[in-house]
């Protein structure tokens, strides 16, 4: 790999105009295609083949209007008044008339017909049924629904439109990325001491992100891609794009400071640090693609979207960056006698050397303290609750959040996510009379189940053999009580089918979300096993050691557990929630665990390689194990620190979003990188290797013979001629 990337780096440097032209052409093509075609994102989460999805598909087939997405209009009269007063009733009727004529609306059910007027008469709830599913709702249709509320609001009523039709918030891109980029620029300027050098990673990362993001928007016309997948891709594209170029550029600057020819330095930087970048990118791609083992289509697409972004970031770092280095030439060389030049020439940076000495002076104490701290942070993870967010998690002040809160106060939280029960009587015992009697009994029995607020009478569909009942829970759509109720209803349905032949299937948006969450929870352990297995195998091949992969895997699991604990403490318990703008505590998004494990796995392996590679090389050259750590680890300290701070800044920028899906994922990733880089890789890894000594590099001879040889350190590259100072520049820069 090192030799191939060495040649690629030299080619890109020499043919820099061609390489830059190809990147600009690719960018122009995808941007033009996106500009002409636009985007077509789908924020519906479902599992094909689940009971709820099968029933929903059947309902849409026999009663298209009933299978469409729904909306709500909530009317609240001023204190001391009722919505049934003549002027208010007339305004409500005008609003419902306008709503019924809004684009794509199939039907509007008035509060009087639905029986959704509170006992005190102050609040009324109207249901809006669309003739299309959520992804097919045009933005203008939602705007028209909001505009239809004007007659009621002009009459003095407080009116809010909400419901599932407001579930998609779209791709939120803007100020959050600016925050991450600004912080990244500051870190890069401090790291390199040069604006030109600091701009290289940003330019490369943003260029690669523009290509991948526009390409994904085009692919959304062919594949089902959600706005969350795009946001995740943006996070990853910025973070890894900057980090990967940082690693290569740091090696290039070090070599330039030590007298290496510019072209040779660019090629050699790609053959050494670029090999580690390619390896790190491969691990992230494999982990993200591994989301497909969960068996949930939207999660598979989410993982593949992130993987595409990472692949483009690696391509940009290994082709576009060397071309830009060619344009920059010797201007990236630190000025003689400058602080940057002294820092680059130092084989062991002072800060890194002091930190490594501190962690290895009493390695056992360091390991015990570090592990204990992570275990304490991870303790809340035992109470991790998963669900898909609803409008109760929408930004405060938004119309859907106001409608959700108004419905919860007036009618109860369950009215925000009623369950639909599709009854199939085609195999009913006793014919039509028996079916009718069984449905009446079912409606009566369901009302008596714990957690049920109301059940509507069976409503026949156009198929004549199917009927629909609506069941309102006493708990919110994302509450554990609602999930338990779904399972109780299904248990009851099994008994009904056995005694009468009538089939009852629980469906609707709430039931679909419950099934998605259950599937994700069940798949967490198998996915974790796949990721841990990959971690062991990859590091075993790279470092040809038993201890290194086991240590790295244990550290990764500690980082993940600590991140889960922090998420529970902030998003479920409410600790420091005001600081990051968490307006409602409760279950976190169901796919956070698998996304966190997939992304953090790749980043953890990235940092592991950069820290351990220098140690391994020093040990291979005959150093004592402790001396190898003290000479090999400090070189990676500055680069890993800068890379981790940039990652944290990018992810933390997305924590500011008012999005119940993106906010906890971004927080978990930022916290995970913080813990994994600074506690695990830069503290525990040197301490553990210091403890185990030579045993850290032991490998059975039979295993050594069958493992493939992988060179990510540049050992197979041709040696450099000695400089005037009598040393080979690249040899002193190894491990950095």
TrEMBL record:
InterPro entries: MMPL_dom, Mycobact_MmpL, SSD. It is a multi-pass membrane protein. Pfam families: MMPL (PF03176). Signal peptide: none annotated. Residues 178-327 form the SSD domain. GO terms for cellular component: plasma membrane. The keyword Zinc does not apply. Keywords: Cell membrane, Membrane, Transmembrane, Transmembrane helix. It is found in: Cell membrane. The chain crosses the membrane at residues 178-198, 205-223, 229-249, 270-298, 304-329, 364-381, 524-543, 555-576, 588-615, 636-655, 667-692. PANTHER family: MEMBRANE PROTEIN MJ1562-RELATED (PTHR33406), MEMBRANE PROTEIN YDFJ (PTHR33406:SF13). This is MMPL family transporter. It comes from Streptomyces montanisoli.
